[in-house]
């Protein structure tokens, strides 16, 4: 009794799913997407379609010219047309091509005159046209649809073998026909599974790269916030000190003026304390680098010297422009990141750095040529961070390849607050 119940538990789900997979294979509209074998270039796509047409024409011509009267009469083109058209249609719509081929097999079995001698369930020319259709249908379809294709194909071969008007040795030819059906389906299903796994891997890699870029952008924003604290805290400290020392430096002062300056100094001290508290949230465990003074355009010369010492062919053109501390820090970080990217992605390539003012905009441009050795791929966090810094000042940053296989980074930063 237990064995019967186990068998029922095993077969009942299969029997319930069978109508659904058969319906999906026969008439349900299934969006299989772009077939894996179709190239994205239109020229190659047309060439693949031409190959299918030529193959179908060669098979049809060879079969009709074999010398058999039944294959050269007027009924043969009628019976073979669904198979021929299905093969051509399968280049772009493989499942519909397989469905059309079923009509051709039925017409061949019941309309075409029988051969003079016993013949197999399907003849050689039919296998030549039908096997590519089975392969394509299983390759481009989902697993449940492929199962439906297999079930329908096996049932059709069995019915044709049992009911065709010419004698067929079912014990010999029917197992061979089953193998002929299942072999291309198994191969196509394996190729389809490999294709699905590859697409899933590419999608996962894209999501991972996107997440890494977002994480890098967030880290760069935190770094910008820490750097802004150092710059703003410096100015707030100056305001507080000047207000607190004003009664001694500018004595005698009016009592109301002294009170006002004391309140301004207290407000600056309070703002400085709040900034330090907020900064504590952004601090990492290793704060050694954050304790150093923040660099600016005056430190670019030291940066360039280190780059040249590392062996990079560097060409520099930096205009002497008086920049606010925050904007100078942004320029330094963009140049630093762009030069680092050039060394990482294009080792040995010459690099040109230009910092110049034009039409009220500070242009920071870093261009590198083609690398002499393969570079190390990155996640795009560096570009995202530079873009964040440029947008902080209302500017913009563009980056992309150059015609000579190099790369160009251009940041345009407004100079509205720069002293002329």
UniProtKB/TrEMBL annotation:
Q: Where is the signal peptide?
A: none
The yes or no answer to whether the keyword Mitochondrion is present is no
Annotated membrane-spanning segments are 47-65, 71-90, 149-168, 174-193
**Keywords in alphabetical order:** ATP-binding, Kinase, Membrane, Nucleotide-binding, Phosphoprotein, Transferase, Transmembrane, Transmembrane helix, Two-component regulatory system
All copies of the Histidine kinase/HSP90-like ATPase domain together span 326-417
Which Gene3D superfamilies does the UniProt entry name for this protein? 1.20.5.1930, Histidine kinase-like ATPase, C-terminal domain
Q: Which domain of life is it from?
A: Bacteria
CDD domains reported in the protein's UniProt record? HATPase_UhpB-NarQ-NarX-like (cd16917)
Any one GO CC term of this protein is:
membrane
The EC number(s) this enzyme carries: 2.7.13.3
What's the top EC group for this one? transferase
One GO MF annotation is: protein dimerization activity
Q: Which chemical reaction does it catalyze?
A: ATP + protein L-histidine = ADP + protein N-phospho-L-histidine
Kindly provide the name given to this protein in its UniProt entry.
histidine kinase
Q: Which organism is it from?
A: Geodermatophilus aquaeductus
